[in-house]
Amino acid sequence: MHSPTLTDVARAAGVSYATADRVVNRRGSVSEKAMRKVNAAVTDLGYIRNVAAANLSQKRTYRFVFLLPDGPNAFFQTIRQIIKAQGQTRENTTLDHIDVPAFDEDALRAHLAGLRGQKIDGVAVVGLDANGLAPELNGLQGQGVPVVSLISDLPHDQRAAYIGIDNIAAGKTAARLLGLAHGGQPGLVQLLAGDLTARDHRDRLEGFQQVIAADFPAITLLPLIEGRDDNVLIQKAMTDRLATHPDISAIYSLGAGNSGLIDALIAQPQRPLVAVHELVAHAKTALTDGLFHFVIDQRPEEEIDAALNLMRALIDNVPPPPTKPILPTIYLRDNLPPHPEQESI
Amino acid sequence: MHSPTLTDVARAAGVSYATADRVVNRRGSVSEKAMRKVNAAVTDLGYIRNVAAANLSQKRTYRFVFLLPDGPNAFFQTIRQIIKAQGQTRENTTLDHIDVPAFDEDALRAHLAGLRGQKIDGVAVVGLDANGLAPELNGLQGQGVPVVSLISDLPHDQRAAYIGIDNIAAGKTAARLLGLAHGGQPGLVQLLAGDLTARDHRDRLEGFQQVIAADFPAITLLPLIEGRDDNVLIQKAMTDRLATHPDISAIYSLGAGNSGLIDALIAQPQRPLVAVHELVAHAKTALTDGLFHFVIDQRPEEEIDAALNLMRALIDNVPPPPTKPILPTIYLRDNLPPHPEQESI
DNA sequence: CAAAAAATGATAGACGTCTATCATTTTAGC
DNA sequence: GCTAAAATGATAGACGTCTATCATTTTTTG
User: Fold this and answer.
1) Same-domain check for residues B293 and B181
2) Which of A221, B22, B223, B284 has the fewest CB atoms inside 10 Å of its own CB, making it the most exposed?
3) A31 touches strand C (CB under 7 A)
4) Are B129 and B101 members of one domain?
5) At A113, which CATH number?
6) Strand pairing partners for A296?
7) How far apart are CA B170 and CA A337, in angstroms?
8) How far is the C-alpha of A272 from the C-alpha of A286, rounded, in Å?
9) Which residues face A68 on adjacent strands?
């Protein structure tokens, strides 16, 4: 009735504890035959390593490193806070984060190289859609350090897993929300991106355009504004655009820098429908105030949590937890999370 | 640098390990003075019990019991599956569930009474808005067995916590989604409830009405249909209503029994906007097929997970995990979770 | 077949906690 | 101050795993 221990496995395989241990922990000096017997016993009895006991014996601590884009981006500030909080909560776990110049492949490569040889158990990196990182990524993983991509993916074969939302689905979701909110009437929609070299932005754009084209033919899209996630740039561009097109019925901002968008909107008499990404402080306020109507969020807490659980499973060599997919979540002013202060009782 | 052990605490307090143990585990036979010294050392060093080690030494297993409404309700079938899956995943944990006649206070009381004296570490119960359960609930908690309410709340003072969504917020969310989707045009909206004696249904109704009244005055609400979550009843009532009011622009079904709603809709030429609750199989299909437009879900996986984490924290006498609030989540056809089969890589 | 190499066995100690037992010291009661 | 009761100390063994060491057996090699 109790789960089998390694001693049970050894007994069932007809070998000593030491040999069983050598097999499951790959310490070498075992014959093929012993290996087979032990492995058979393992699957037979359904042995699973008691990680708690193992960590206890080793005083095991985990160290995970996050590589995040630097800069004032509110979303990544949130990410940093979450990482800090998780680091204090999780047992035997230290979490570090390194700020890397945003969208800079060379800088990222240098930082990855700097991690080589360090005592690290896992790396989570906000990916870039570039191939020049392969040597460093594969080098780390060759040393047994799992690398997962977070929020924005790396090439598939260069990371153990991607933790983040499906950005095509996110774009489609935004399109359908705004489309439905036109109530079948025609409309003029302005799209606002950060940088189309970023994979997530491209994906969102693509999803949005697909759904509008397929299901909302009465809606016209104005030429895209690329705002580089820069508040000042965005405010200026949007103010101009709203002046030349006072009949804009909706805006979809698929990147960051939405403070600039708020500033542009607040100065205008029109109140188009607005959908943006990431429920950071100013987005929450704008939602409450009626400036924004939809916020699509990727639940960063869950992403960090999933990334950590996954990296632990990978180095513990344990079946990874059943992955609840990370889905874009829609916030209206009515289903906002309460302030963290007011704990639910 | 390493977290202090009970031995450290004992040394700091100037007492033996045995005494420190007697204090932290409340075994009695300790003087006031010793108690103070030990407790001071505990807070001083920031001692936190190593639960893993403790469980290891005791071969501790946890047994949690869920009391769920019986019947064919697809949502609770899902809940049952999740509980089963979690029971297989979690270490040292057995999860049982007991089916209790739905909305039956006496039956629930009897089952709660039956749990007294059993070797149980925690109870999660789908609450009823009734006061007659107080003796049993308090009895269990008096024995040190935490009771949490799940999905539908119990009176506040009779449970340790409520794990579930804010149903008023859920109703408001539905209202705003449907309201916005009218694009400022007038509309005729049909509400469909299960049983207004159920707290969650009442709350959703209230939230919905509030938002419509406040922000969408052009929308008229038809008289509520109470369908008792019964597919046949619902199909009939809705078919009738659609016949007499072919100009219904939207439907909000705030309870269960949506297969009946689907059957009614499918036979009609009109395609009103439809918002329902809980992303069960048939709702997912209807969303994909365009019969439903919005599904508001409470993420049952997270609820079960949160309930289990909380109950563990309560009996381990450990600070409970930071509660991410459980929020109503909106699904469109575009942000549906992938099938569980196709694991994310 | 002897010597070297490889494989295996046996076992002790550590990790932090819990349980239990027994000896010793301190306090309270009279 | 003596006895009984209460409080404290000391310590061993268990939980399951890891690490390490050393002895012994088996296999390989020439």
Assistant:
1) yes
2) B223
3) yes
4) yes
5) 3.40.50.2300
6) A277, A330
7) 12
8) 13
9) A99
Query: Phi, psi at residue A325, to the nearest 5°?
Result: -60, 145
What's the domain range around B144? Answer: 59-164+300-325
Tell me the C-alpha distance between A257 and A232, whole Å.
9
- The rounded mean pLDDT for chain A is 91
Angstrom distances, CA of residue B17 to CA of B22, B23, B54: 9, 10, 15
Interatomic CA distance for residues B132 and B138, integer angstroms: 11
**Residue B1 belongs to a domain:** no
Are the C-beta atoms of A199 and A127 separated by less than 8 Å?
A: yes
Contact A124, A150 (CB under 8 A): yes
Identify whether residues A145 and A243 lie together within a single domain.
Answer: no
pLDDT of B245 strictly over 70: yes
Chain A: closest CA distance from residue B125 (Å): 16
Domain match, B111 and B142 both: yes
**What nucleotide is nearest A54 when CA is compared to C1'?**
D17
B338 in a structural domain? no
Query: How far is residue B254 from each of residues B102, B109, B194, measured CA to CA in Å?
Result: 17, 27, 7
Distances, alpha carbon B12 to alpha carbons B2, B17, B19, in Å? 15, 11, 12
Q: Is the pLDDT of residue B341 over 50?
A: no
Interatomic distance B33 CA / C21 C1' (Å): 25
Distance from CA of A304 to the nearest CA of B (A): 13
pLDDT, one tens digit per residue, over B281-301 is 999 999 999 999 999 999 999
CB contact under 8 A, B335 and A175: no
Task: Report the number of distinct structural domains present in chain A.
Answer: 3
- In a mutational test of the B interface, the residue from A92, A149, A330, A335 whose CB has the highest number of chain B CBs within 10 Å is A335
**What's the predicted TM-score (pTM) here?**
0.86
A221 located within any domain: yes
Put simply, the answer to whether B332 touches A293 (Cβ < 8 Å) is no
Report d(CA B157, CA B314) in Å as an integer: 16
pLDDT digits (tens, 9 = 90+) for A8-58: 999 999 999 999 999 999 888 899 999 999 999 999 999 999 988 999 998
